[in-house]
């Protein structure tokens, strides 16, 4: 597993809550730091891809681990 600076547990939350909480968490990070998000909403895969494209942050990892989705996002 990759290293990260902060973790967000978004399990059990549905769109748009994982994105909203991730945005708040990323805003608190310094440029270059990494946020790890764990979510259970299948829609979060496309949501985080779009979120990163729109915000200029880098989606480093997007994994599906049997119903749990892990994302690592580096703040731009």
Describe the structure.
This protein is of the alpha+beta class and 76 residues long. The chain has a single domain, classed as TusA-like domain (Translation Initiation Factor IF3). The chain contains two helices and four strands, in the order E-H-E-H-E-E. A four-stranded mixed β-sheet has the order 1-2-4-3, with helices on one face. A hairpin with a 4-residue loop joins strand 3 and strand 4. The longest helix is centred in the middle third of the chain and has 12 residues. The radius of gyration is 11 Å and the shape is globular.
Q: Short summary of the structure?
A:
It contains two helices and four strands; from the N terminus they run βαβαββ. It is of the alpha+beta class.
Describe the secondary-structure layout.
Blueprint: E1 6-10, H1 17-27, E2 34-39, H2 44-55, E3 58-64, E4 69-74
Parallel strand pairs: 1-2
Antiparallel strand pairs: 2-4, 3-4
When the domains are counted, the total is 1
What is the N-to-C order of secondary-structure elements (H for helix, E for strand)? EHEHEE
* CATH domain class name: Alpha Beta
- What is the global morphology? globular
CATH names the topology as Translation Initiation Factor IF3
Q: Could you give the count of β-strands?
A: 4
Number of helices: 2
Mean pLDDT: 95
- The share of residues in extended strands comes to 25-35%
Q: Biggest sheet, in brief?
A: 4 strands, mixed
> What is the annotated CATH architecture?
2-Layer Sandwich
Structural class, judged by helices and strands?
alpha+beta
CATH superfamily label? TusA-like domain
Give the end-to-end Cα distance, rounded to a whole number of Å.
21 Å
- Helix residue percentage: 25-40%
State Rg. 11 Å
- Note poorly predicted spans: none
Spatial order of strands in the largest sheet: 1-2-4-3
């Amino acid at each position: 597993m990759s290293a990260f600076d902060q973790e967000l547990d978004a399990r059990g939350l549905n769109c748009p809550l994982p994105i909203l909480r991730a945005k708040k968490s990323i805003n608190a990070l310094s440029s270059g730091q990494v946020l790890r998000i764990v979510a259970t909403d299948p829609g979060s895969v496309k949501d985080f891809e779009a979120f990163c494209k729109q915000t200029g942050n880098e989606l480093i990892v997007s994994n599906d681990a049997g119903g749990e989705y892990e994302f690592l996002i580096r703040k731009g």
